[in-house]
Design a protein that fits this description.
Blueprint: H1 3-19, E1 36-37, E2 40-43, H2 54-63, E3 68-71, H3 82-95, E4 98-105, H4 120-134, E5 138-142, H5 154-168, H6 170-176, E6 179-183, H7 191-201, E7 206-211, H8 212-217, H9 222-229, E8 233-237, E9 240-246, E10 249-255, H10 264-274, E11 280-282, E12 289-292, H11 308-320, H12 333-354, E13 358-359
Parallel strand pairs: 1-13, 2-3, 2-11, 3-4, 4-5, 5-6, 6-7, 7-8
Antiparallel strand pairs: 9-10, 10-12
């Protein structure tokens, strides 16, 4: 993006942000006390500091009386044998908890593509097999990271490579009855870019794992992100975010539910309308701020596809936000992180039940 067009873009977006009424920047649903019917659960990444394997995470999920659990990495399992995975599925069924399977990046040209599980196609086929054995209807994965936006060819080259991988394993997914749920992950794609990927791969076997926190890392209002991705959402990773302006642009800090700028009740109610069959999976990652230095010209390399009207909604959130402190552990750092992650997740579960009135679908 050239400086002149960037100035024009920022001027247009700033003017639009100023014109957005406070209530309309996030809230689109009517306020009501009616229960929001969704499966409520969490991602094991929310309590990653504990290092628990799947069985222990499942036991903990039972104590929290959740309806769903996303096991979002392949290392969480003791092993990948048929017998072990089927036993895990039986245990989850006995506890009344729906399991969802996930893994990491599946773009072979992605900045951080990990060859630990073989090629991108081999990686996905392993995930599909695991999903099938534990009874997961979806296989959650993602393209990559924010750095991919600045790679050779930009994000659309990475989308092309990801689509190629997805099409190569289509028969494996359809034969297993598992849909591939690609996440908007760590600043890699905006909602409309991910929707482009899903449409090019095919909605018949692909959809979205929607992540409200990751939306803010790509300069999006989570509600706007939901409006675009809601109809193709199969799974989720939900958390709140606080956004506030600074001298270079803004800071984004993910938070427990209810501690950020997102209108969580409007979001959950709209989620239930657009994706009633998808679980409301909490992925609480909080305690640190990330800068989005959009007032610096070099920031925009890789973000040329950002659209002013949508960016304006993000700016409106930033103008309403306030700075909050980061998590500062004291004493035994590992123990402090474990206690912090458990507390943040459990507060979020209570908030979803008590304040959002989420009840089993």
């Amino acid at each position: 993006m050239q400086p002149a067009s960037r100035r024009s873009f920022m001027k247009t977006a700033a003017a639009a942000a100023a014109a957005i009424p406070v209530a309309s920047s996030t809230a689109t649903a009517a306020d009501t006390t009616a229960p929001i019917k969704l499966k409520l659960g969490f991602d094991n990444f929310s309590i990653r500091a504990l290092g628990w394997k799947a069985g222990a995470v499942l036991d903990y999920a039972a104590t929290q009386k959740v309806d769903a659990l996303l096991l979002s990495d392949l290392d969480v399992y003791e092993n990948h044998s048929d017998a072990y995975l089927k036993d895990l599925a039986r245990k989850a069924k006995d506890l009344g908890i729906s399991l969802y399977a996930g893994t990491g990046g599946i773009c072979p040209s992605g900045h951080r593509f990990d060859k630990k599980w073989g090629t991108a196609e081999e990686h996905l086929r392993l995930l599909i097999r695991i999903a099938s054995l534990i009874g997961s209807p979806v296989a959650r994965c993602y393209q990559g990271f924010a750095e991919d936006r600045r790679s050779e060819g930009g994000i659309f080259a990475r989308i092309k490579d990801t689509v190629k991988t997805l099409k190569a394993i289509k028969s494996s997914a359809t034969d297993a009855g598992v849909k591939i749920a690609v996440e908007n992950h760590a600043g890699d794609m905006q909602a409309w870019e991910l929707l482009t990927l899903i449409d090019e791969a095919g909605r018949d076997f692909t959809g979205c794992t929607i992540d409200s926190g990751n939306a803010t890392w790509t300069l999006e209002d989570p509600m706007q992100n939901l409006e675009i991705l809601g109809p193709v959402t199969l799974c989720s990773g939900i958390r709140d975010s606080m956004i506030w302006e600074d001298n270079d642009g803004c800071q984004v800090q993910w938070t427990a539910m209810g501690d950020g700028i997102m209108d969580s009740k409007a979001y959950a109610r709209r989620f239930a309308e657009l994706a009633p069959n998808a679980p409301f999976i909490l992925e609480i990652i909080s305690g640190f701020a990330r800068p989005s230095s959009y007032l610096k010209p070099d920031f925009w390399q890789g973000y040329e596809s950002v659209r002013a009207p949508e960016f304006a909604k993000f700016l409106a959130l930033a103008k309403r936000g306030k700075a909050i402190p980061s998590f500062q552990p004291s004493g035994d750092r590992k123990k402090a992180e474990q206690e912090y992650q458990l507390a943040q997740l459990e507060r979020s579960i209570r908030f979803c039940r008590d304040s959002l009135n989420i009840r089993p679908a």
